[in-house]
Amino acid sequence: MHKFLSRSLLACTCLWSAISCAEDQNYLANPAAVVVMDELVSEEGFDRQSLEAIFAAAYRQQSILDAMSRPAEKTKAWYEYREIFINDKRIDQGVDFYREHRDTLERAERETGVPAAIIVAIIGVETYYGRIAGSYRVIDALTTLAFDYPRRSEFFTGELKHYLILTRDQGMDPLALKGSYAGAMGYGQFMPSSYRSYAIDFDSDDKADIWNNPVDAIGSVANYFKAHGWTPGAEVVVAARTAGEVPEEMMSRGRQLKPRFTVAEFAAAGLVPVSDADPAAEAIGIEFELADGMEYWLGLHNFYVITRYNHSAMYAMSVYQLSQHIAAGVAE
């Protein structure tokens, strides 16, 4: 929808950053910010004076750049990663959240087909049920990353535009909203583009408030999954066992998570479901490291839908297993 910054402009932005990189530097005179303002005025009907006031109050945050540039820690094994999200405290608080918002959750499930427990698990994994949603001003996060993080400048410039549009359209103060260091927002940690595409007003008060209103947050997470193709009533994963050397291309690796082979093809290749599964269903092979060995799964279409929220097989499995524990706790 919008043109991104040209390479020459990015170079100019880098020069600007090198010349003026103090923590208290605002972005009013930044060349790339000027271009963004020009585009928002001409393409989206913004008032320039209002934009200038916003960019004058948006500040570079070195801690954000440090967080983005920090070398990734060694990837945790599944048995270590799982313990972060599948533990008594997160399960118990998920059950409490479900019970507190049961009517809203069950309405969301009826209207979208997305299980209430999956919605709760997403919110639980992302923000501990709204308790830890980020302490950075979103405007600082997005301007810092758009104008002082060249590697992903184009992406965050787009997100900055989406953010300014959504705050204008929703009547929100763009200088007040808080989020993660990457600009993710609210109970479900939506980026601005996701907010504009999937956030909904689920309580009919003419505002989609995913920051303070759990009703809108629940409806928005459910809508995200519906829009990404969740199949109501379908399985998510099937446990499997190995009966041979499975070809590498059939297994999930990094961001390769889309199902491309049928359950029958997996069985023929040596990854056999241990319970009934539709032989024609497409799946992706998954292997997870345990403390004393490996475990194997076949991720089906709905598993892939969960990975559209975060492109990680371990993330998706954590959401799924947390949802199972929450559902069991609610049923007790």
Structural summary, described in words:
- The chain is an alpha+beta fold and 332 residues long.
- It is built from 15 helices and 7 strands.
- A 5-stranded antiparallel β-sheet has the order 4-6-7-3-5. Strands 1-2 form a two-stranded antiparallel ribbon.
- A hairpin with a 2-residue loop joins strand 6 (282-290) and strand 7 (293-299).
- It is globular.
- The active site is at residue 126.
- It comes from Seongchinamella sediminis.
- GO terms for molecular function: peptidoglycan lytic transglycosylase activity.
Outline:
By secondary structure, the protein is α+β, with helices and mostly antiparallel strands. The chain has 15 helices and seven strands.
CATH architecture of the domain at 31-70 and 133-216: Orthogonal Bundle
Average predicted local confidence, pLDDT: 92
CATH C-level label of the domain at 31-70 and 133-216: Mainly Alpha
Number of helices: 15
Strand order of the largest sheet: 4-6-7-3-5
Instruction: Note the main sheet.
Output: 5 strands, antiparallel
Helical content stands at 40-55%
Basic shape = globular
CATH fold name of the domain at 31-70 and 133-216: Helicase, Ruva Protein, domain 3
Organism: Seongchinamella sediminis
Signal peptide: 1-22
Domain Transglycosylase SLT: 36-324
Active site: 126
